Amino acid sequence: MELGVKIKQMRLECGLTQEELADRCELTKGYISQIENDLTNLTVETLENIVTALGGTLKQFFTEEEKEQIVFTGEDYFQKESEASVQTWLVTNSAKNEMEPILVELNPGASTESDRPHEGEEFGYVIKGKLTLYLGSDKYKCKTGDSFYYTPNRIHYVANESKEVAKFLWVSSPPNF
Fold this sequence. Notes:
434 Repressor (Amino-terminal Domain); six-stranded antiparallel β-sheet; alpha+beta; 9 strands; 2 domains
């Protein structure tokens, strides 16, 4: 690990100049520059002062964390096709997350698999077409621009009873697919 590079990265993330960091640590701008360019050695005490001034701890500083993926593109998507539908997982590895957003294209006369009651919440937004949401013995009609939100404490599924393909965004929390 190059200490200087990491210190510079932290300083830039905090929006500080070398001079501002130096002032916070009672060091000189030149010394901060030497540290960032790995031209000098520094004591653990000096490193701790710098890291603290940048809002971190030595433990955080030395922990190599993978950056969390924030933006997902079509190349990241996973798709599952069947006669009834095309399901596109919009977030890679969403099973480990709190929510699982899926884009569903449901063919005419088709339905999603019936799902047993479970913990969590589910949300849907109809992008195109008409759907019928079945929750136990209740059914709800939805059309383009409508959304639905429910606790999945009954058997539930979505059906396309129209003659056109329906497209909707389905978010399950926790992930259920």
